[in-house]
Design a protein that fits this description.
The protein is α/β, with parallel strands linked by helices. The N and C termini lie far apart (58 Å). The chain contains seven helices and six strands. The protein folds into two domains: 30 residues; 155 residues, Rossmann fold, CATH 3.40.50. Strands 3-2-4-5-1-6 form a six-stranded parallel sheet, with helices on both faces. The structure holds adenosine-5'-triphosphate and magnesium ion (MG). The site of adenosine-5'-triphosphate has 17 residues, from helix 2.
Length: 201
């Protein structure tokens, strides 16, 4: 056998062992239930990941609802698309933005939008609920942690929930099944490039 053939054989053996391991893990994963996903961290890609998952679910015929806890100053590309596919959106109508000034109005707006989130989390006809930027409601103490935990714990057994936003509360991370932290390596904004339609919103 030539050195090249030996290398090839070793590679094949390694791949076979790897395949066995992966197959074993796949066979061992049998539980089925609604998942709680958290996408947090300072890097770009949290909301796009949440919306990507909603699009994936809708593509399979699942139903979805989106609650946005930050009032954006721009219209939202995902909303324009997903509403056409029956995804219901609830957006914080007034109040909280990044440059918030009026705390009482913010709290009232947060309460309003959270009530809708609670309704989605109690509705077993909705397969996937995206709670976009929910984490800030906890950082600002606008919504009570216990209420959020209760709504998540008591939701329909097969309902999936995705929470996005920076600095996610430890208790939600503990409660979640899957948690990803998006790290910022660099961002165009730091080089004076403004937010781009279709990429940033
Ligand atoms: P996206 O919606 O693009 O997935 P995100 O949800 O991860 O971003 P947010 O903190 O919600 O990030 O910020 C929303 C806006 O801020 C987006 O326009 C995004 O491009 C921008 N942004 C995200 N991360 C950074 C960063 N590290 N520096 C500067 N701007 C950022
Ligand atoms: Mg976001």
């Amino acid at each position: 056998m030539t050195t090249e053939q030996q290398k090839q054989q070793r590679h094949q053996q390694r791949q076979q062992r790897l395949k066995q391991k992966v197959d074993q893990a796949i066979n061992a994963a049998v539980a089925e239930k609604g998942l709680l996903l958290v996408i947090t961290g300072n890097g770009k890609g949290k909301s796009t990941s949440g919306f990507g998952t909603v699009a994936r679910a809708v593509g399979h015929g699942l139903t979805a609802a989106v609650v946005q806890f930050i009032k954006g100053s721009w219209d939202c590309g995902e909303r324009n698309l997903l509403e056409q596919h029956g995804v219901e959106f609830t957006v914080m109508a007034t109040g909280f933005t990044w440059d918030t000034q009026d705390k009482a109005a913010d709290i009232a707006a947060a309460e309003q939008v959270w009530l809708q989130a609670e309704a989605y989390l109690a509705d077993d006809s909705i397969d996937v609920v995206l709670l976009d930027e929910l984490t800030y409601m906890l950082s600002y103490h606008y919504i009570d942690l216990t209420r959020i935990e209760q709504a998540l714990v008591n939701r329909p057994k097969n309902q999936h929930v995705i929470i996005t936003g920076r600095a996610c509360h430890r208790r939600l991370i503990e409660l979640a099944d899957t948690v990803s932290e998006v790290q910022s390596v660099k961002h165009a904004f730091d080089n004076g490039i403004k937010a781009q339609q279709g990429i940033d919103w």
